[in-house]
User: Fold this.
Amino acid sequence: MADPALRRALAERRFIVAPGVFDMISARVADGMGFACLYGTGFGVVASHLGLPDAGLATYTDMVGRMGRIAQGCRTPLIADADTGYGGLLNVRETVRGYEVAGISGIQIEDQEVPKKCGHTPGRRVIPAEEMALKIRVAVEARRSPDFLIVARTDARTSLGLEEAIRRGRLYGEAGADIVFVESPESEAEMIEIGRQLGPRWPLLANCVEGGRTPILPARRLQEIGYAIAIYPALGFLAAAAALERAYAHLKARGDSNGLPAEASYGFGRICELMGFPEVWEFERRWAQDRPAEG
Assistant:
């Protein structure tokens, strides 16, 4: 079931900073750090699971399995990317039901045409706004718990301009979305305008992508201009890729891992603890004494 803590945090106007998680190691690390929410990044999950670009190549089955495992392995509420809902209205209904049953606390659905593309890459096209509004209405009706949040994203800014993106955000909010997400504003001034027009009625989500199309503003500033959530979907996998490249380069150059700086490695003991080995060892110790003797 969806975690009510996320809706409660929004109602209490507590600003939410959500790191992007893309596999169980990143999820376990983030889960232990006291964040109010985690964000299941489609880009990162597709990259880590399939080794493919975030270009509509992953299926519902791919994503609900991976996102559900992350949700079930963490105590922190998870909002998960669900692309376009993986099809038409019936697909959206089944996607919402599947994500909710999987233990996810919120689902993000966007108004791109199929196949979709990453929101900070070129060539994105959007479906008619009224069609997307129907998807949101279906999503709201399909959920079993009101604590399961519907995030409606529009990608209209890049191809159709800010005014149309704001119109769509308003339309999706009126259709029942709990959180409105205008993707890829290109300046702080545009973000201020989004906050001015939409922020008084709906919690707004800012997508903070290092090297992306949108300026990354401090949390306090985002809250001042009307935003409620800031997601950092790429931070984890960008950092992980850089760390892996440095470690593997060291191995290639030396032929062994000796001399690798301590800060460059998580440590085998620490990763065992993170993955839950102490509980396994305690289980085995406790039951070993009751195991019947052989022979």
